[in-house]
Write a structure and sequence with these properties.
The complex is a heterodimer of chains A (about 110) and B (about 180). Chain A is mostly helical and about 110 residues long. Chain A contains 6 helices and no strands. Chain B is mainly alpha-helical and about 180 residues long. Chain B has 2 domains: about 90 residues, Orthogonal Bundle (Rna Polymerase Sigma Factor, Chain: A); about 70 residues, Orthogonal Bundle (Arc Repressor Mutant, subunit A).
Chain lengths: ~110, ~180
């Protein structure tokens, strides 16, 4: 028997045997296939898919908060400290005795 | 979604053949089903995003490793837990049937299942690497490069294993 004939015949027998599996085996294989496909989807959702999107969302929110909030030294920053807030801070400082220690410094910090 | 569908079609096409390949190596249907399931799950989990052309060699590589793991586990079980069962199984192995056409094709004129049983027995008698090369190259129709990828060796090794497998298998089948 030539090599070509052997391989051709072997392939025919192989494919025929694969297509004539009994129903129970076919069902078991179909169940395994569905399990594999389900585990693939679950794996993506559980491990990979949500992590990057969650991290990106958190980074965007943080960047937005930093961008929106006024920077120290700017007019908007000082404007954000209203009179009431400033007097509360002063009262707290007096309670703690900070104003007695370095009055010039706190007077300077209070300047707009 | 399309990728999942493509993967499903790929697995549906290959699963029965994979079962036959695993059956040759493991000689046990339950173990063969486990090996195929393991290979399908690993391919779906780890390599679904790879190009579709890579799926076949990757799947066969995973299947080969699953089969090896199964054989290793079985050897351990046999050695430590059931020292006498393997010998009994060998004694109980069915004899080869009489050849239908001794002068020509040894597989000619046989029922499909019987022809497969004889071919499987011939393949089982080959060394592991030769059997892998023959299954992938001749039965699965992979090219030499894909076989090398699946077997984890060079293309030259694939050709050598395949050449030896063809000659050994021809000899075994003609001996019948």
């Amino acid at each position: 028997m030539s090599e070509e004939r052997l391989t051709r015949r072997a392939r025919e027998v192989y494919l025929e045997s694969a297509s004539s599996l009994d129903a129970a085996t076919r069902t078991a294989l179909a169940v395994s296939r569905r399990r594999a496909l389900a585990s693939s989807g679950a794996g993506n959702l559980g491990q990979g898919a949500w992590w990057p999107s969650g991290a990106v969302a958190a980074a965007v929110m943080l960047a937005a908060m930093l961008w929106i909030s006024p920077r120290p030294g700017t007019e908007a920053y000082h404007a954000s400290l209203d009179e009431a807030g400033l007097s509360e801070l002063m009262a707290l400082g007096q309670e703690l005795g900070l104003g007695d220690e370095e009055p010039e410094l706190y007077a300077w910090l209070g300047q707009p | 979604m399309l990728r999942t569908r493509a993967l499903e079609i790929f697995l549906a096409r290959i699963e029965a053949r994979a079962f036959r390949i695993a059956s040759i190596a493991l000689s046990n249907e339950a173990d063969a089903l486990d090996a195929v399931q393991e290979a399908m799950i690993k391919l779906a989990r780890r390599y679904a995003s790879r190009p579709e052309a890579d799926w076949a060699p990757l799947f066969h590589r995973i299947l080969t490793n699953s089969i090896r793991d199964s054989l290793r586990r079985r050897r351990v079980r046999t050695r430590w837990l059931m020292p006498f069962r393997a010998e009994r199984a060998e004694e109980a192995a069915p004899a080869w049937p009489e050849p239908a056409d001794p002068a020509g094709d040894p597989l000619a004129g046989l029922e499909a299942e019987e022809a497969w049983r004889i071919l499987a027995k011939g393949l089982r008698s080959l060394p592991e690497r030769q059997r892998e090369a023959f299954v992938l190259r001749a039965l699965e129709g992979l090219d030499v490069a894909q076989c090398a990828q699946a077997m984890g060796c060079s293309e030259g090794s694939v050709k050598t294993h395949y050449f030896r497998a063809v000659h050994a298998l021809r000899g075994r089948l003609e001996e019948r």
